[in-house]
Amino acid sequence: MEQAHAAQDLTRAAAQRPAHWQRVAAHQASRAAVHRLAGALVQRREGLLAALTRR
Fold it and tell me: Are 14 and 21 in contact (CB under 8 A)?
């Protein structure tokens, strides 16, 4: 029963602060995009290094 109250409290808090949760979601999406970009850059660097060492 206490978990139900905690869930209700979280739901109420989220409803009262939608802008905050939008910022949290945007931040998480931004971090994911940066992570994907970093991964792509690492792969590109590894590809370039491999091409240089094959010569």
Answer: yes
